[in-house]
Design a protein that fits this description.
Layout: H1 2-17, E1 29-39, E2 46-53, E3 71-78, H2 81-88, E4 95-97, E5 103-107, H3 108-111, H4 116-123, E6 134-138, H5 142-148, H6 157-165, H7 168-171, H8 179-185, E7 190-197, E8 225-233, E9 237-241, H9 243-251, E10 260-266, E11 274-280, E12 286-290, E13 297-310, H10 321-350, H11 358-362, H12 368-374, H13 376-380, E14 384-395
Parallel strand pairs: 1-4, 1-5, 5-6, 6-7, 13-14
Antiparallel strand pairs: 1-2, 2-3, 7-8, 8-9, 10-11, 11-13, 12-13
Domain Spore germination GerAC-like C-terminal: 228-397
Family: Belongs to the GerABKC lipoprotein family.
Keywords: Germination, Lipoprotein, Membrane, Palmitate, Signal
Length: 409
């Protein structure tokens, strides 16, 4: 009886302790914050780059490790990401952990390969690979991109990628790009991924946002530029959009996450001058698709509100209604020309649309089988698309009329 009582006393205690056998201290783990994937010189192999963060750098414990780098970078050649992870454990003193990965860098050459999608899809079988990981396509190899990226403002690498990925909210130069959205749109529809590079191919253009990564004229500062988007279709990269084209693609979506951005337009009253304005989309775009006609018809209405910020020509637009009508017409004409060029590019060059219009087209069918049989992306190539911008000028960004200097009104 005493032994039975002792058993019932000790058994509950043993249940509490059974979960401690595989415990691991934080300092025993090496947390990877960035993964880079490149096409290897070996057939059916990839080069996987891990950037392992040093938790002591950038924290209160920096005094104990004043000369340590913020991260350790190593590249492993393997058949997939998970195999590379195991091989990395034979090099790094700490156990490699992928649960904190926030960014995955894809080299452009690998993104254009036939087995890119299979490698990415197979990696998500590991529970440590989360679908909210940000996807970035780099013009150069991912290994070179990661090694060249040394931000002057951010000591801890994961903060840099987190802050940069949030900039799409302010500019719309890059799309929302994560693994979850990639898998949702990888079949048929075009997926836009963030495009970046540390290389330079500087160009000057009149439109301040019509650049691809690497083309922005830059003299100093961080080496990496993130502007524009890599276009992926059926799990393979097929082209690149500029920052301007990316932003316009987001405007044409029914639900856009980019609410306000700064743009410049030609001054209709003074040739050679441009007017700066803040453009806002506070309401959803209206998309209507008629699949009963041949070719299908697409009608898009985009409501925009404009706040004029700068008028270098000093022409009075604030109180002159006739000038305001001219400016409103010029803004609408400028946007419609850019949108028309973008739509033709997606129809002829890409053969599919990145505007998520397939969701609206799908509502026109009773079953998914009917929609799949219709083949919306193929029909889109010849679709008749009409886009109308509803422009409202809210303000002219000044409390006083612009000061005159003797030039026209």
């Amino acid at each position: 009886m005493k032994r039975l009582k002792l058993f019932f006393l000790l058994f509950p205690i043993s249940l509490i302790l059974v979960g401690c056998w595989d415990k691991s201290e934080l300092e025993e783990r090496g947390y990877v914050i960035v993964i880079g994937i490149d096409k290897s010189k070996k057939d059916h192999m990839i080069d996987v780059t891990f950037q392992v963060e040093n938790p002591q750098v950038g924290s209160s414990s920096l005094a104990t490790a004043p000369n340590e780098p913020p991260s350790d970078i190593l590249t492993i050649t393997a058949t997939d990401i998970l195999s590379a992870k195991e091989l990395a454990n034979s090099i790094v003193s700490r156990k490699i952990d992928l649960s904190q990965v926030e960014t995955i860098i894809i080299g452009e050459a690998f993104a254009k390969s036939d087995y890119f999608h299979h490698i990415i899809a197979s990696s998500t079988r590991d529970p440590e690979i989360r679908r909210r990981i940000i996807m970035i396509v780099s013009k150069e190899n991912a290994r070179e991109f990661i090694n060249n990226n040394h931000s002057k403002l951010e000591t801890r690498p994961h903060k840099y990628y987190s802050f940069m990925s949030d900039r799409w909210k302010d500019t719309g130069f890059v799309p929302i790009s994560d693994l979850n959205r990639y898998f949702q749109r990888s079949s048929g529809a075009l997926f836009l991924a963030i495009y970046a590079t540390s290389e330079r191919d500087e160009r000057y253009r009149e439109s301040s946002d019509n650049y691809k990564a690497g083309q922005v004229p830059q003299k100093e500062g961080d080496p990496v530029q993130m502007i524009g988007s890599a276009v992926l279709k059926n799990g393979k990269m097929i082209g690149v959009l500029t920052g301007e084209e990316t932003r316009n693609s987001l405007l044409l979506r029914e639900k856009s996450k980019t609410h306000h951005y700064i743009d410049t337009f030609i001054d209709p009253k003074m040739e050679g001058h441009r007017i700066s304005a803040r453009v806002g989309k506070e309401e959803h775009s209206k998309v209507k698709i008629n699949v009963k006609t041949e070719p299908p018809e697409v009608f898009v209405t985009v409501p925009l509100k404009v706040q004029v910020l700068s008028i270098p020509s000093q022409i009075d637009y604030a109180s002159n209604e006739k000038n305001q009508a001219l400016l409103k017409g010029e803004i609408k004409k400028d946007l419609e020309e850019k949108i028309s060029s973008l739509i033709k590019k997606t129809q002829k060059e890409f053969g599919a649309e990145p505007f998520v219009w397939y969701e609206e087209a799908r509502r026109e069918f009773w079953t998914m089988d009917e929609f799949i049989k219709y083949d919306w992306q193929k029909k889109y190539r010849d679709a008749d698309v009409k886009v109308d911008f509803e422009i409202t000028i809210e303000s002219f960004g000044s409390q006083l009329k612009p000061q005159k200097t003797g030039r026209g009104d």
